[in-house]
């Protein structure tokens, strides 16, 4: 798929179905090569401007999809490109529908109790395996401990929901320790799954 630049950030021209196929290939790779996914939205564009680490984490992500119509509209107006949407929620739901018990999901982020509820609902509705759960309120001094917890869990899908910026930087900075084939910074998705 082609990649374009929008407000100094990369954006992949890829729809939901092709995104799910690509992530499926990453999940199936026996080498378990770590990959990071960013679902680009206007908040990321604005917040990453004054935050070089955040901008770099987006720059270095393996896949950057258009989360919503704001990005689709900007790509059309500024780059004359038709970019399909592949929203974070649809990606996560699609992966769970396609892979079910083939997923071992680590739910990282949100307030204590929220990731637990998300995990329960995902297991009930899609039959996914739950590799681990951790809330999203810890300081940088605990990053390594949490990254090692995720690594030891054997997860093949990491949903990181710690707010825009923190979640993308965490996934990118610790990708080598995390070692999870598919890691998605997915903000409110965990809250939505929690219901
Ligand atoms: N969150 C978190 N740790 C933080 C900040 C936020 O786990 O330090 C969680 C928050 O509980 C929510 C999600 O991240 O589940 C998105 O938070 P918010 O909407 O405040 O962040 P945004 O993405 O809008 O910056």
How is this fold's topology laid out?
Elements: E1 3-6, E2 9-12, H1 16-28, E3 36-40, H2 42-49, H3 52-59, E4 63-66, H4 69-79, H5 88-99, E5 104-109, H6 114-126, E6 129-134, H7 143-153, E7 157-161, H8 166-173, H9 175-178, E8 182-185, H10 189-194
Parallel strand pairs: 3-4, 3-8, 5-6, 5-7, 7-8
Antiparallel strand pairs: 1-2
Helix pairs in contact: 1-5, 2-3, 3-8
Uridine-5'-diphosphate (UDP) binds at residues 109-111, 136-137, 161-164, 166, 187-188, 190-191.
Account of the 3D structure:
The chain is built from 10 helices and 8 strands. It is of the alpha/beta class. It has a single domain, classed as Rossmann fold. The radius of gyration is 16 Å and the shape is globular. It starts with a strand and ends with a helix. The site of uridine-5'-diphosphate has 14 residues, from α10.
List keywords for this structure.
single chain; 195 residues; alpha/beta; 6-stranded parallel sheet; two-stranded antiparallel sheet; globular; binds uridine-5'-diphosphate
């Amino acid at each position: 798929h082609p990649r374009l630049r929008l407000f100094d950030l990369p954006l992949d021209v890829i729809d939901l179905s092709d995104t799910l196929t690509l992530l499926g290939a990453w999940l199936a790779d026996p080498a378990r090569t770590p990959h990071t996914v960013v679902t680009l939205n206007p908040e990321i564009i604005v917040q990453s401007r004054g935050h070089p680490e955040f901008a770099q984490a987006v720059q270095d992500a393996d896949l950057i999809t258009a989360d919503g119509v704001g990005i689709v509209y900007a790509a059309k107006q500024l780059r004359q490109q038709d970019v399909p949407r592949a929203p974070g929620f649809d990606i996560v739901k699609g992966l769970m529908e396609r892979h079910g018990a083939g997923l071992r999901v680590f739910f990282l982020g949100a307030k204590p109790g929220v990731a637990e509820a998300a995990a329960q609902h995902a297991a009930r509705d899609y039959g996914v395996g739950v590799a681990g759960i951790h809330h999203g309120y810890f300081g940088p001094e605990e990053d390594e401990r949490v990254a090692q917890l995720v690594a030891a869990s054997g997860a093949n899908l990491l949903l990181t929901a710690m707010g825009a910026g923190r979640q993308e930087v965490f996934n990118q900075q610790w990708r080598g320790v995390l070692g999870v084939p598919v890691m998605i910074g997915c903000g409110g998705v965990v809250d939505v799954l929690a219901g």
